[in-house]
UniProtKB/TrEMBL annotation:
UniProt KW keywords: Repeat, TPR repeat
Annotated InterPro entries: CellSynth/LPSAsmb/PSIAsmb, TPR-like_helical_dom_sf, TPR_rpt
Protein name: Tetratricopeptide repeat protein
Originating species: Limosilactobacillus vaginalis
Start and stop residues of the TPR repeats: 238-271
Length: 420
């Protein structure tokens, strides 16, 4: 048995001091080919320091072997020593046999630094050199996949399949294609590929994407079954609960949707959107108390979320809690950009509290956006009528009737005031 073989055997047995001693002996007495193989094994096992020592030992003997520099650069990237990695890669020239691999390592390095344009340049250069190389095709596919450029990723995953690769680097290519097609809105193609994924690669993510795609295609019952099975096998997969609830809502099964969301909240209790979704489902069940609890909790968890604020405001308006609505919305009008719906909702509450000056102020603010909205104009007419501003009421009535000339009731109101 060589010392290199002893190193690996002792590591497997957990005999680390003996393995270190054998490693020292290996560098001194084993053949260079054996040391190179040992370095590759150690790198694959995560013993980066020892792999680096072995490669440096060989580089000292073979200073023209660029493959060793690329391997050392790869280790440096893994350890976050990017400057060291760049130093090694800069020594690999385009005419070197190791240049292609150096480009892939460089792309990995720049991606860790979020320099995506440089990453793409390196990968494209590698593709120009070796368009049929599976490692290059996979690297480009993964780059575009990870940066959400799914349409571009499809091309390179297809090339892998044409080369006979159904999986590469422990990644299922059909699964990747399924996700890419789904993210690109091509759901029929997506489902076809997702259903080709072999059982050993059907991760929770793949199963979740399958359910989402079925839901998009209107296969509600099938989606529910897919989501249910996922929950049975992986109940901590929090993302599945809101989607399963949406599927139940599509079938008007609101009680089951609520139960699903409550189960999701047991898994992800700090998810504000989950509470807001539970509130929306509860609105169909007529339980205002529970709806209030969910909206209040959603607001507590994410007080700056505009959608949640408006959902809560609409609920408070519905339940005639005008003081609560004003307390909720008044702080929001101090922001640089205010959603006009906030002005409209405040105006409604102040009108009901007969604080007409404030109501008028906020109606005017809202009118900047909603001046062509018939629903808003009808409310504005009623506000001016209630506050006694006949002139403004008639003006807004005329404006409203230009938009909705078939509203006989409002036409009668205008006729009544013009006669007066």
């Amino acid at each position: 048995m060589t010392y290199s073989e002893k190193v690996l055997e002792q590591i497997q047995a957990g005999q680390m001091p003996a393995a270190q001693q054998s490693f020292t002996e290996a560098l001194a007495k084993d053949s260079d080919d054996m040391i190179f193989s040992l370095a590759e094994e150690l790198y694959g096992m995560g013993f980066l320091h020892q792999a680096r020592q072995a490669y440096l030992h060989l580089l000292a003997k073979y200073p023209n072997e660029d493959e060793l520099r690329v391997n050392l650069a790869e280790i440096a990237v893994s350890e976050g020593h990017n400057d060291e990695a760049l130093s090694y890669l800069a020594q690999v020239q385009p005419d070197s046999d190791a240049y292609l691999q150096s480009l892939l390592v460089a792309a990995d390095l720049y991606q860790t630094e979020n320099e995506y344009e440089v990453t793409e340049e390196k990968l494209k250069e590698a593709y120009r050199i070796a368009p049929d190389e599976p490692a290059v095709q996979f690297a480009l596919g993964e780059f575009y996949f990870m940066t959400s450029r799914f349409d571009e990723a499809i091309q390179y995953y297809f090339e892998l399949i044409r080369n006979g690769y159904t999986e590469f680097a422990k990644v299922n290519i059909a699964g990747r294609l399924g996700i890419c097609y789904a993210q690109s809105g091509q759901f029929k193609q997506a489902l076809g590929y997702l259903k080709q994924v072999s059982p050993e690669y059907r991760t929770s993510d793949i199963r979740f994407q399958t359910g989402l795609t079925e839901l998009q295609l209107g296969e509600i019952a099938t989606a529910i079954k897919t989501f249910d099975e996922l929950i049975q096998d992986d109940s901590q997969y929090a993302s599945v609960y809101p989607e399963l609830a949406k599927a139940y809502v599509k079938e008007n099964k609101y009680q089951q949707a609520l139960k699903t969301l409550q189960e999701g909240l047991a898994v992800d209790q700090y998810n504000a959107r989950l509470y807001a979704q539970a509130a929306e489902v509860t609105s169909h069940l007529g339980n205002n108390k529970l709806m209030d609890e969910y909206l209040k909790k959603a607001h507590e968890l994410d007080p700056d979320n505009l959608t949640i604020n408006l959902d809560y405001s609409n609920f408070l308006l519905h339940t005639h809690d005008d003081e609560g609505n004003i307390k909720l919305l008044e702080p929001l009008i101090e922001e640089d950009e205010v959603d006009p719906q906030i002005y409209w909702n405040l105006a409604r509450s102040y009108q009901r509290l007969e604080k007409f000056d404030l109501a008028g102020k906020y109606y005017r603010e809202a009118a900047v956006t909603y001046s062509e909205n018939p629903t808003f104009l009808k409310e504005l007419v009623n506000f001016y009528r209630e506050s006694g501003d006949t002139e403004q009421m008639v003006e807004e009535l005329k404006h409203y009737l230009k938009l909705v000339p078939t509203d006989d009731e409002m036409q009668e109101l205008l006729d009544e005031y013009e006669e007066y």
